[in-house]
Structures are given as structure tokens and as C-alpha cells.
Amino acid sequence: MAALQAVTTRGRPSNATKAAMEQAAKGGKHDAFGGVDEALVANKSTAIDFNKSRAAVEAVKAKQAELLYRVTLGKYVDREAIQRASALVMAQFAQGMRSMQDDMERKLALTPELAEAIGKYVDDQLDQLASEFELMLGAKDE
Questions:
Q1: Which end of the chain is less packed: N or C, by CB atoms within 10 Å?
Q2: CA-CA distance, 102 to 3, in Å (whole number)?
Q3: Which of 87, 65, 72, 91 minimizes the C-alpha distance to 137?
Q4: In whole angstroms, what is the distance from residue 130 CA to residue 124 CA?
């Protein structure tokens, strides 16, 4: 305090002291006496880190709000709902395709060997389709 009073006139800061204090208030790294104020430097970097962290948190909150908004609008749907619906459609389709062998044999008077060849081909194609669905569904986040 004695040092501050030494550079002031009648309890008021001198012009040089005012300029140094204004520079420190604007984010300068010098204290009122022209020396480097380590506390100002540390506080400034801490403030910058805090502001960056706060901006990152606000960005995440904004993205979450946008996602919720899009889900509410129906633009985005739950992955599990798509998986369940796809599995149901796949099961119905597979059942129809597997019964095709017997239906064709009866309705078109195919020989059992030809109907069996058609059934084997359909089964192979359905197995391949099932493998593709498993790859698609296996890509989900854990």
C-alpha cells in the first residue's frame, strides 16, 4: 500500500498509474507499477479455459435440444424401433418365400425335384439377406 501511495498525489493515482491500471483492466499483463503481474496472466488463461469449456457445454446442450426437436417432429426415429420393424417385415417375407416351394409344386404341378431346387435357391437368398441385416444391425453403438 505504501508503494501505491508513493505514486499517487493526495490519495489519487497519477496519470502514469492511471494508464497502467487501464491497461491492466483491458487485459494487459502488467500491474499498476509496470511489472508483469503473474496473477493477471494466470487468471486470464483460466478465464479463457473456462470460457472455452462453457462454450463446449453450451454447444452440446444445443445439439441435444436440436436432436430432441427433430425426434419430436418425427424426422429422427429410434434405431431399435427400426430394427424391430425390419425384423418383423423380414420374418413375414421369409415365411411367404419359404411356402412358395410347396405352393408352386401344388398349383403349377412342378416336379418335387424342381420345387426343391426352387426352395433351396430361395433359402440361400434369404440366408444372404439375413446376413446383410445382421451386418446392418451389428453396427449399433454399444
A1: C
A2: 104
A3: 87
A4: 10
- Does residue 19 share a domain with residue 48? no
Indicate if 127 and 103 belong to the same structural domain.
yes
* Mean pLDDT score across all residues of the chain: 75
Reported as a pLDDT band with limits 50, 70 and 90, residue 71 is confident
| Among 51, 76, 101, residue at a domain's last position | 76
Domain boundary among 23, 49, 76: 76
**Chain centroid to CA 90:** 30
> What pLDDT shows up at residue 121?
94
Residues 58-70 have a mean pLDDT of 91
Question: With the C-alpha atoms ordered 43, 46, 50, 52, is the resulting torsion angle positive or negative?
Answer: positive
Cell reading at 41: 496472466
Residues 88 and 130 in one domain: yes
Confidence band of 61 (pLDDT split at 50, 70, 90): very high
User: How sure is the predictor about 123, in pLDDT bands with cuts at 50, 70 and 90?
Assistant: very high
- CA 15 from chain centre, in angstroms, equals 54
- 31 in the same domain as 63: no
